[in-house]
Amino acid sequence: MIEPRLVRAVYNKEFRDSLRSSTFLVIVILPVVLALLFTFLLGGPAASSSHIAVFAEGETAFIGMLDEAGNLEVEKATSWEDAKARVKDGDVSAALRIPAGFDSTVELGTTVELDVVYDEARSRQTNLAVATIEALLEDFAGRSPVAVIKARPIRKFKAGQLMLPVWITFAVALIGITLMATNVAEEKENGTMSAMLVTPVSRTEVMLAKALFGTVLVLVSVLLMTVLSGVIGSHLILLLMLALLGGFGMVSLGLLIGALSRDQRQASTLSTVIYLPIILPVFVMGLNPVVDAIAHVLPTYYLWHGANLLLFSDNISGVWIDFVVLFGFAVALLGVAAIALRRR
After folding, report:
1. Could you give phi then psi for residue 2, rounded to 5 degrees?
2. Which candidate among 60, 77, 311, 342 keeps its CA 20 to 30 Å from the CA of 88?
3. Residue finishing a domain among 136, 153, 170
4. pLDDT range class, residue 45, cuts 50, 70, 90
5. ∠ CA 132-314-236 to the nearest 5 degrees?
């Protein structure tokens, strides 16, 4: 039976040790610093496809050209308000309004104004959509310029703020996998783990205390990044709950790596080998279908996706799938880590 008093004692030891460790401080602070730095950066790799909503105020052959574009998925909206709502809910990356009499106006050689509303959180897909629309307009009219595209964001966020879900995922994985793996390996190597286990504290209680401590570090890091970036929103509690589940899973993975490693060097190598493949696909989401397919089988995708919904979308109904996946990942990894440490 787990003794809360013993778990608390190990937790307090972890806290004291972290204050004396420069490695702990660097790993916890680094994601916060990087998130603040990238608040001022723009850009990113191009997307391979984009999902848009189109509302035409009259009949137009241009919608047919949009449908045939290989890199656009087109939804026909019933009204301009409906199209904008789909962008705001995260269903599409952009919405296009085609005015009445568009075809005849183009035939007369008159420049047309087209309204585009886009989701700032999906800048890669938006850039692709606008570039594709501009190219199709030239093909449609056989001349340039055909139209003036008036694009505006559906919300008002700074470019760096839109990277926050990525940096949250980065911080959770870095702290959970790298920090906790080296922590366990270090204590095994210097004998601290053996010393604790000759006391009434069991291996399960040690693992639970370490998992709780690592998760607290994750929550502090995520909270700092969210507050300092200025993107708090109305779903902060849900965001912290999501980070809690994601953090618990990543910490459990880190503990498993530490339990299986002979020393700190091996733990560092294993954590790096596992950390990079589990985090990189999230950074390059939208590059191509293969990358997206790989990302969808990783727990980091569901952490990123849930954070993105909770921070930037009004429709958060899909976030419960992210919660379920992260919960299952956390429970499974903690159990495996406890068994691995017990056998060691």
Report:
1. -75, 130
2. 60
3. 153
4. very low
5. 125
Q: H or E segment at 329?
A: helix 319-343
Last residue of a domain, one of 107, 129, 153: 153
- Domains held by the chain: number: 2
- The two counts, helices (H) then strands (E), for the chain are 15, 5
- Please check the confidence at residue 235 and state whether its pLDDT lies above 60: yes
pLDDT of residue 304: 92
End-to-end CA gap in the chain: 20
Which one, of 30, 3, 89, lies nearest residue 225 by Cα? 30
DSSP structural state of residue 78 = S
pLDDT of residue 139 exceeding 50:
yes
Rounded Cα gap, residues 207 and 340, in angstroms: 11
Contact 333, 252 (CB under 8 A): yes
Same domain, 140 and 286: no
Distance, in Å, from the CA atom of 132 to the CA atom of 290, rounded to the nearest integer, reads 22
33 plus 131 within the same structural domain: no
Sign of CA dihedral 24, 27, 32, 37: positive
**How high is the mean pLDDT of the chain?**
81
The helix-helix angle for 264-283 and 180-190 (nearest 10°) equals 180
- Residue range of the domain that includes 196: 4-41+160-343
